[in-house]
Design goal:
The complex is a heterotrimer.
Chain A: H1 2-25, E1 34-39, H2 55-64, E2 70-72, E3 77-79, E4 92-97, E5 103-108, H3 122-136, E6 157-164, E7 167-172, H4 179-184, E8 217-223, E9 227-232, E10 248-253, H5 257-265, E11 271-273, H6 280-285, E12 289-304, H7 334-343, H8 346-353, E13 358-360, H9 383-392, E14 395-396, E15 405-406, E16 420-426, H10 430-444, E17 449-455, H11 457-466, E18 471-477, H12 487-490, H13 509-519, H14 526-543, E19 546-559, E20 562-563, E21 580-581
Chain B: H1 2-14, H2 20-33, H3 35-52, H4 54-61, H5 93-129, H6 131-146, H7 149-160, H8 164-174, H9 177-190, H10 194-201, H11 206-214, H12 219-242, H13 254-261, H14 269-297
Chain C: H1 2-29, H2 33-38, H3 46-56, H4 62-71, E1 77-78, E2 88-89, H5 126-161, H6 166-180, H7 183-202, H8 230-260, H9 263-270, H10 277-288, H11 295-312, H12 318-328, H13 331-359
Antiparallel strand pairs in C: 1-2
Helix pairs in contact in C: 1-13, 5-6, 5-8, 5-11, 6-8, 7-8, 8-10, 11-12, 11-13, 12-13
Classes of the chains: A alpha+beta, B mainly alpha, C mainly alpha.
Chain lengths: ~575, ~300, ~375
Amino acid sequence: MKISTKFLLSGVLVVVLALMAAPLAAQDGPEGGVIIEGNLGGDPATFSPIIASDTASSRITEFLFPDLLSVDPSQAIIVPREGNPLASSAVVDSWDINEDGTVYTFNMRQDMVWSDGTPITSADVVYVWDAAVAGQEGIVDTPLSFIVAAPGEETGILDVQAVDDFTFEVTFASSACDALFDAASLEPVPSHIYPEDLSLINDFEENLNPTVTANVFSFGEFRPGEQVSLLADQNYIDADLGFVNLDGYIYRNVPDLNVIVEQYLAGELSVVDNPNVARRADIRADEGSQVYSYPGDRWDYLAFNLADPTNPQNGLDADGNAIDQGNHPLFGDVRVRQAIARAINVDAIIDAAVFGEGSRMTAHLIPASWAYHTELPPIAFDPEMAAEMLAEAGWADADGNGVLEATEDALYADAGTEFVFTLYTNEGNTRRTAMGTLVQDQLSQVGIQVDFQTIDFNTLLDIMDSQTFDTLILGWRNGYPDRPDSTQLFTPASDVVGSGSNFTSFNNAEFTSLNEQAQFVPGCDPAERAEFYFQMQEIMQEELPYVWMFAQDGMYAARTEVNGFDPFPAQLYWNIDTWSVRSAE
Amino acid sequence: MATQTAVAKLNVKNEERSAGESLTKLALRRLRRDRLTLVALTVLGILTLLSVGAPFITDLLGVSYTRTNADATFLPIGAPGHILGTDDLGRDHLARLLFAGQVSLSVGFLAAALSLSIGVSLGITTGYFGGVMDDFVNWLIATLTSIPQLFLLLIVAAVLSPTASTLIIVLGLLGWTGTTRLVRGETLSLREREYVVSARAIGASPIRIMFVHILPNLFSIIVITLAIDIGTLILVEAALSFLGLGIKPPEPSWGNMLTNAQTFFTKGAHLVVMPGLLIFITVLCLYVIGDGIRDAFDPTAKD
Amino acid sequence: MVKYTLRRLLQGIPTFFGITILSYLLMTAAPGGPVAALTFGPNVSPQDRQQLAARLGVNDPLPIQYLRWLLGDDWMRWDSDGDGIADSSFLIPLDADGDGEPEPPGVRQGVLRGDFGRSFFYRRDVASMIGERVAATMELGASALLLGLSVGVPIGIVAAVTRGSRFDTATRVMAVMFQAIPVFWLGLLLIMLFGSALPRALGLDSPILPMGGRCPPVLIGGCPPIYGRIEYLILPTFVLATGAIAIYSRYIRASMLDVMSQDYMRTAHSKGLKGRSVWFRHGARNALIPLATFLGPAITGLLGGAAITETIFSWPGLGRFAVEAVRAQDFPIVMAVVIITAIATLLGYILSDILYALIDPRIRFD
């Protein structure tokens, strides 16, 4: 009851504010309009930036709460706001780094206030840090706890201290070049209204009805299962035009992937973010659309289990020494992996599975990454060579049944074993089902029999984490801004049975060492760091813990009535304060 | 539900008849004259034959339901070499529809047969013996019918990650409640009939009474329920596919082909239309057949 | 009558336990589990997962989990000296995740005390989340029921009276067609028809009917009363009602045919009451009696069957909510929806029986 009354009051208040703002704006004022975007997933779980972990929640909190650090959207890198005209709105102006590179002193702007007039101060940042620490103890449900440095590890933050109202100091566990990414997660909240007792954050009433915000929009209303609406906040300090041009934004639930495109084409939605690949041709053909495509940040792969699937082991023991992983009877042999990579026609898969809406990967970094190795050509489709390599690795079809058997020369398979393995992917994903079907058919032509199964996503995660699979098709999505570090995916420290992301048990000493060196390049010059990443990509093209497939291209589309639509890769709304919607005359 | 109650009505009527034999003959005669039902039977027969013969037909046409071809995707109906065109991965659409028919029809038929056998045997025994077993089965029915079927199926499907065989078992194990109720009611009234009472008096064993005296009288209910259940189950499989919990690709079923093709109606409308049409025609035929048989057995109908 | 109702309610108790135990067993048997679903990502450590599992209580033995859900856990782990730290426990360990510190005291009250628990994913009180969606589901369900009855009943009666006529055959084929069309297919076709195809053909620049949602997409002011947004109800109601129309018309037709063969009807007819009016006047009323038994199953049917319609038409109802929860293995939500629909069905059955007895004097409560 209490909440709903408050809800109503704040709604009224906002309407009144909006009405007051309207006459002022009439002179050179906002052109107005409402952006309606379809939300294919479920409701946002929360509007608190501390708790938000799902895509829908983040979409809303990013519009309501200020960023800590600026990003240059044209290059997708974190930059000081000071002296960078393209830098996005943020509370930090600049920073200084101490001599050993582990302590950063951040200088905040003094002109930013919350919507209730309270200045945004260092206390608001420290509060989020405290919540992250409490999260690690299980007191607060926050995804931020990963930035807290684990004992003995080289990444993460050790401490955050306020120096004065507008200055704070962050102590990192090491001088790694990616340290800033961890700091960027400390997006301030209005700590003056947040509960002092951190355990109350989980149920804080502002989580679902944020009344105190500071960004382009303020909160409108949340109608569960239907939509979230946001209202233009004319107090937004960094508005390029001096005012927020739109009236508001609506995030409307449309849970069917076809209906969302139909609604957009009919003009019921003004924007779609990454529509289904099968429907993109329709959107491109639509005269009422403005379309922006970019090499995407989501990439699908086919992963091999390199280790013995009957005896999964962690990569390292408690003292950090490597544990013997055993060998997968088929994929333990790198020649077999190389042969498979040549027997799969990735270009054909891109054409059929994503209708050409994908960019070929050559190794483990997406083509859009600043560390992408442009000189490295992709592995060419060459079934003859694949057959030769398989023969060389000790596989031949002696009994003429169309499936290869191991000969005495095979490295890890007993002689006579047929080349048969299981390929999993998650059910309900048309793209990955198509990929698996094509791989199954293509490999059958070089004498490899694939048992392709689509299974429940959670079951697949269980199998993946337990490291008992042969192969699987899944995908990763790179964060923004891009961070080419491979610690989580391909180093032995992350090869943890039951939870680690290096579930293939990949362990290459040179690769691990290069990955480390790239983190500690003095001065952190991207060009210098990229040299290390180039070498790592060359190794990955040889070693192939995954068959490198493609990154699905991103697509944003907006109705032609939308003015100001001018995205960068993975940055649809960077300039939303200048957007407007031409009303139909 | 409706059909079952209607079936019950019909069987109340059946009590008035004198001899089962003549009604069956009458029913067959009526069926022969019911053109709609005959057409439905013929169409269903053809579809079943085509599906059963899928391996031979595809061999004959020189196509395969697994062979992909990235250069020949979304070929339209009538494309050379592919009578019904190809799908998003260049696989022959006709071949896939036929093999999917095998899956969908056998899921429908076997699951219906399973639930019917459970339903009939439970219905007869509880109706005949009553007692604790009857109370328990009634409680089980009340429990199962109080949970919306779709939720129950969703939960079970999430547990089992269905293949065709697990889906058959699940649908069969969950679908028997209506039949049991129906058969139980029917048995209750049949066991008080004179010929059953006298059979009991001369010492016939319960098993014999149930098989010889009661079961034959349930024939029409069984046939009607079977026809309608198969149709409903094919639809249920399609609905589960839409919710991502039906038969898993790459094993084709009409339901998952239809779901998978949802986004393709501008690229290749035949991919959406054909599986939908086949589901529709099959279910239509089964319902028409069910209705036809019911009418044929209806003693109130005039000749 | 009161006694009868009470007895039915008492009979509902074992059913309640049957439903809840069955659902609980099935759900917890699902592979993966909520912790895997909630913690997918490279940043989550094994300790985090342990903590989460302990907090959600999903690693406890099944009977304990069920008890917690049913009766709460404030009596399983509590703080007896008032320092805020749990110091006593019953049935469950004080320190569930093995980190050397006791878990916080139990705060759950259990379903029997009206506490449906918190959603794993949304971390909110399930009862209030259900409350937010019940109205939408009832709105759609009731209008589909209404449309189904108001179209299905007359069709059924007329078809029976004119048995064998063209109308009879046509409506029977139509009924079967309605039942045989996969719902999501019909929904999508209608959305495209009224959203884009027809407007384009007619030269309009906006959809004839909204392509989804329950209320207009306005920034503020909430959802207008139902008469202000009828257009949003039309398509989903129609899609949901197609099945109902088919079922009711077939059912009423059979029931009417039955009534028509009764002696008193034949008598009335032979006594010179002319024409078909007698069927309508005397027959129809009696044919409608068995419809009362329909209420119970109709409620379950509409709730369950609405999941797909709600998804296609972006309708913020319980069916879609429950389906999403099943997928995410959000046990508390699934359990709550199952309970609520089961109770509604149970009440529906009781109501049916009472109605039936009221209408039909041949039935006695005993």
